[in-house]
User: What shape does this take?
Amino acid sequence: MLLITREMPPAVLARAQREHQLRELRLTGRFAPHHVLNNCEGVTAILCIPADIFDAALIAALPDSVKVIATFSVGLEHIDRDAAAARGIKICHTPDVLTTATAELSLMLMLMAARRAGEGERILRAGLWPGLAPTFHLGRGVAGKVLGIFGMGRIGQALAGMARGLNMQVHYRNRQRLPPTLEQGAIYHGEDARFLSAIDFLSINAPGGAETFHWLNHARLARLKPGAIIVNTGRGTIIDDAALIAALRSGHVAAAGLDVFAHEPKIPAGYLALENVVLLPHIGSATIEARNAMGFLALDGIKAALAA
Ligand code: DGY
Assistant: This one.
């Protein structure tokens, strides 16, 4: 029996129906452990999403029948992997197949923030556009600028390729330096201070979790050049929101584009009041192609784990 916590894309659901007996919860919004615990009798596999927090307590309370937890995400920070390993529960996730979609969204947010696209659309829809004028609604270009990528994994590397096509220079901050074949001329930084002071745009493409929690805080924001632009499609927890809101208000950070938030679907009120931030509802991987591929990969992982 496969327990699916959220509504799946139709093609994924159809395949899941062919391969398993299903229990579908179709949860929306916030997750609570009882959603799973009240529904997991006879369940061998669980398909969840990053909003479903499988901490040590929940994993300890699962019945012995559960052999695998698959997450419909590349991110794994919502699952206590040690607790799962201790119970012999396998974990699988969906890397690679969402790389292009998420890199595309990082690029889109970067351009939207730089060209003040959200604000421009709001002006137009409100009937406040005075008409074409040489000084109206000036943004910033990206060509010739330095893009700094925090987290040079698959998505960061894909974004770097797209940025090179826009004639941007790429610098990156990563735990390890990449081999030249993957680096493709990007400049590696082994520490934050120089990285942050070298860049015009910062794209956060790192995973969440304790290691990156509030990495972008007051002190690191202060290292950025005045007028820097920030994009986050990684995890909301990487940014100290109060610090970024203050930097956006003061203009030290000219604009930001955010797709992920620490307490989704809640958005800090400070962002909502600002014109210079583009806000999207965690849609980095939300293309039909990527979402189908993610579901199929999760089902492949479940099949392999149950067969082992
Ligand atoms: C992921 O895969 O971790 C995304 O954030 C959800 O699409």
